UniProtKB/TrEMBL annotation:
Family (UniProt): Belongs to the GPI family.
Name of protein: Glucose-6-phosphate isomerase
Annotated GO biological process: gluconeogenesis; glucose 6-phosphate metabolic process; glycolytic process
Gene that encodes the chain: pgi
Gene3D superfamilies per record: Glucose-6-phosphate isomerase like protein, domain 1 (3.40.50.10490)
Function of the molecule: Catalyzes the reversible isomerization of glucose-6-phosphate to fructose-6-phosphate.
Species, as recorded: Wansuia hejianensis
Length: 434
């Protein structure tokens, strides 16, 4: 069992992919020999196989400590500094994780802060955590991003008021650069335990570093299995032959469709647990490819929910879109629909069918309708939603994004455009030097 890419409904012929064999091989070498644009940010490529065991063990020890002494973990970070963890925790834990009764969840509640600048958000959260034991993991690669920095200033004061400076120090963990940035300076001067984000791994590629692994381990998810999945992807997708490598096929198909005026890729999923996986995917592809006047716009929809809002546009709107569906092939848990005596809702024809079965028929029906509506459709089939395949899927997207960016002719590892709003905001706020 592995991840299977089905492009039978993408209006792409195998020969069109074969025609790209040489350019794929060339870009594959640029990636693996680290000679292409952004080559100092390719550390993610071998993270699954090269990650230090001692660091993984330290992550597990700290996660256990947080689990033992905290009812709540506050994760402070924005973009790649929280989306990977949130995507994984949401995909692999209960969808009602934070409100599960204590007897059902042995791990702390988890709240994400520093991904907006809303006082209501933080004040609402203070009410929730009032009587609970707290730990904080502040995550910022640059150590200077405004949103998490403001949130941390507020939470540092909150923790010191609640616990006193000494105990607060034992409950705050900083994940940041090895040497530079304000967060590193602050962590050193306060004596917080720190975790390092390698220099050669950018934020949106950082889930398999402490950025993702510490929060994920605190949530009780098996990070060894997650890394095993990523490792299996690292091996499987190191094949430079496009005909045999679905990860490169996905990258190539996106670019072929883009060249046919498909400007928007819609990621669709039928399990609501994948909502944050789609948010993570949006950052990965949006920030990697949207530059130099180029790039597909990555959008996402949760079905069947959004069939009742966006379905109309996808079926009948401007034909500048294509769809990529993440299909979970085997769901482990089932609810079976029963017959009723009076059949007043007219649903007895579904007697004995499971919700998973109905969901699959919704997927098949939707795919058929959208293809008939001239929307190219790709399907990424995931055997199961578990640690192993989630780790594998993340790596699949990371590597396909690198390849896709090179095919598009951009540097997939920088994000110069993000600075524009910051400069304007700092000018408006009167920050010295702006
Ligand atoms: O980890 P940092 O440096 O706080 O950055 C957070 C996010 O902000 C960005 O740098 C964009 O401003 C993203 O690339 C990144 O994921």
């Amino acid at each position: 069992m592995t991840i299977r890419l089905d492009y039978n409904n993408a209006f792409i012929k195998k020969s069109e992919l074969e025609n790209l064999s040489n350019i794929i091989k060339k870009n594959h070498n640029l990636i693996h020999e680290k000679k292409g644009a952004g080559n100092d940010y390719l550390g993610w490529l071998e993270l699954p196989s090269k990650y230090h065991k001692e660091e993984l063990d330290r992550i597990k020890r700290v996660a256990e400590r947080i689990r033992n002494n905290s009812d709540v973990l506050i994760i402070i970070g924005i973009g790649g500094s929280y989306l990977g963890a949130r995507a994984c925790i949401d995909a692999l834990s209960s969808q009602f994780y934070n409100i599960l009764p204590k007897c059902k969840r042995k791990t702390p509640e988890i709240y994400y802060v520093g991904n907006n600048i809303s006082s209501d958000y933080i004040l609402d959260l203070f009410e929730v955590i009032e009587d609970k034991e707290i730990s904080v993991n502040v995550i910022s690669k640059s150590g200077t991003t405004t949103e998490p920095a403001i949130a941390f200033r507020i939470f540092k004061e909150y923790m010191e008021k609640r616990y006193g400076k000494e105990e607060a120090k034992n409950r705050i963990y900083a994940t940041t650069d090895k040497k530079k940035g304000a967060l590193k300076t602050l962590a050193n001067s306060e004596g917080y335990q720190t975790f390092t984000i390698p220099d050669d791994v950018g934020g949106r590629y950082s889930i398999f570093t402490p950025v993702g692994l510490l929060p994920i381990a605190v949530a009780g998810i098996d990070i060894d299995k997650l890394m095993d999945g990523a490792k299996s992807a690292e091996i499987e997708y190191s094949n430079d032959n496009i005909v045999e490598n679905p990860c490169y096929q996905y990258a190539a198909i996106r670019n072929i469709l883009h060249s046919r005026n498909k400007d928007i890729e819609i990621l669709a999923y039928y399990e609501p647990a994948l909502y944050y996986a789609s948010e993570w995917w949006k950052q990965l592809f949006g920030e990697s490819e949207g530059k130099d006047g180029k790039g597909l716009f990555p959008a996402a929809v949760g079905f069947t929910t959004d069939l009742h809002s966006m379905g109309q546009l996808i079926q009948d709107g401007k034909r500048n879109i294509f769809e990529t569906t993440i299909n979970i092939e085997n769901n482990q848990r089932e609810i079976t629909i029963k017959a009723t005596k009076d059949n007043l809702d007219g649903l007895n024809f579904l007697e004995g069918k499971t919700l998973n079965y109905v969901n699959k028929k919704a997927f098949e029906g939707t795919l058929k309708a959208h293809v008939q509506g001239d929307v190219p459709n790709l399907v990424i089939n995931l055997p199961k939603l578990n640690e192993f395949y989630f780790g594998k899927l993340i790596y699949f997207f990371e590597k396909s994004c690198a390849m896709s960016g090179y095919l598009l002719g951009v540097n997939p590892f920088d994000q110069p455009g993000v600075e524009k709003y910051k400069t304007n905001m700092f000018q408006l706020l009167g920050k010295p030097g702006y």
